[in-house]
What we know:
The radius of gyration is 21 Å and the shape is globular. The protein is an all-alpha fold. The chain has helices at about 10-25, 35-60, 60-65, 70-100, 100-105, 105-110, 115-140, 140-160, 165-175, 180-190, 200-235, 260-299.
Amino acid sequence: xxxxxxxxxxxxxxxxxxxxxxxxxxxxxxxxxxxxxxxxxxxxxxxxxxxxxxxxxxxxxxxxxxxxxxxxxxxxxxxxxxxxxxxxxxxxxxxxxxxxxxxxxxxxxxxxxxxxxxxxxxxxxxxxxxxxxxxxxxxxxxxxxxxxxxxxxxxxxxxxxxxxxxxxxxxxxxxxxxxxxxxxxxxxxxxxxxxxxxxxxxxxxxxxxxxxxxxxxxxxxxxxxxxxxxxxxxxxxxxxxxxxxxxxxxxxxxxxxxxxxxxxxxxxxxxxxxxxxxxxxxxxxxxxxxxxxxxxxxx
Length: 299
C-alpha cells in the first residue's frame, strides 16, 4: 500500500539533499519519509510547549495552576503522549487491516520488504521518539536518566528500521501503545484529585487488562514471531534471499544483509522490554490495589 500521507513539494528537495547521508548510513527509505518524521516532531513539540499549557490553564485552572514546575512538565508530556498513542495505534491497526501487501508478505519481505503505509507508522513513531529524546535531554533533571535511555533506544531502533529492516513489524509492536492512554488517564486522575475514586478504579482495571493482553500476551507472541523470522533468515542462502518477485516492495532492500550487531541489538532490546513489561505489570497491580484498598477504607 502506498503512503497515504500528503507529500509537500519541499520534501522531495529535502529528501534528495539528505539522500547521500542516508545512503552512507544504509537508511535507504528514510528520504521518502523524513517530512513525516519532522511533521510528527513539530506537532508534539507544539502540544508540549504551546497547546497543553494554555488549554490546561483555561479549562483546569484550579488544578493545573497549583501543580509544581515538574508536575506541569509531566502533565504537558502526558498530553503529548496521549495524542501520540491514540493516533499511532489507530494508524497501526488501520494499516494491519487495510494493507494487503503487508499482510501477504513472505519471510524475505517481512525482513527486508517495504510498504509506504507501514513506513508511515514507523516515521510518525520516529518523530515522536525524536521529540521525546529532545524533551528528556532538556529536562533531564526532571525525567531522569532512565527515561533518557528509553527515548534514545526507541529512537535508534525505529530509525534503523529505515534500512529498511523489520518494516512489517513496526505496526505490530506499536500496538504496545494501546495501554498508554489508560496509563495517562490514571496519572491525570491523581493530579485532578480523583485518587481512589471508582472512575480511577475502573480505568485501572482496564489498564491492567489491556496492558496484559497487548504487552505480555501479544508482545510475547510477536517477539516469538520475529525471533523465528530472524533465525530462519540467518540460515538462508544468498540465492534464497532473493525469494520475492515484488520489485516495488523490495526496492529499498539493497544487499539484504542481516548484520549480527543488528540482530543482537533488536533481540536484546525485545528481551529487555518484555522483562520490563512483566516488572511494570506487577507495579501496576500494586498501584491499583493500593488505591482500591484506600477507597474501601473510606467507605
